[in-house]
Design brief:
By secondary structure, this protein is of the alpha+beta class. 43% of the residues lie in helices and 11% in strands. The protein is built from 2 helices and 2 strands.
Length: 72
């Protein structure tokens, strides 16, 4: 069988390796430093707790950028 990107994946080894990589990434995030909370929605941000200034999660950061870009 040929998948959408043209590589033959008759067995599930490619999918299993992708799932394994995702599991490893989750474990690495959990072992990282404590992350600061978003000041708007209180979700975890990409910044450590020691980060100074306003901390926003990626979603709120994007929404704030949209608001300021259109306020012209």
């Amino acid at each position: 069988m040929v998948d959408e990107c043209g590589a033959g994946a008759a067995d599930g080894t490619a999918a299993a390796s992708v799932i394994g990589a995702a599991e490893a990434a989750k474990g690495a995030e959990a072992a990282g430093p404590p992350f600061a909370e978003c000041v708007l929605c209180r979700a975890a941000t990409e910044y450590p707790e020691s980060h100074r200034g306003i901390t926003l999660c990626p979603v709120c950061e994007w929404q704030e950028a949209q608001r300021t870009a259109c306020s012209g």
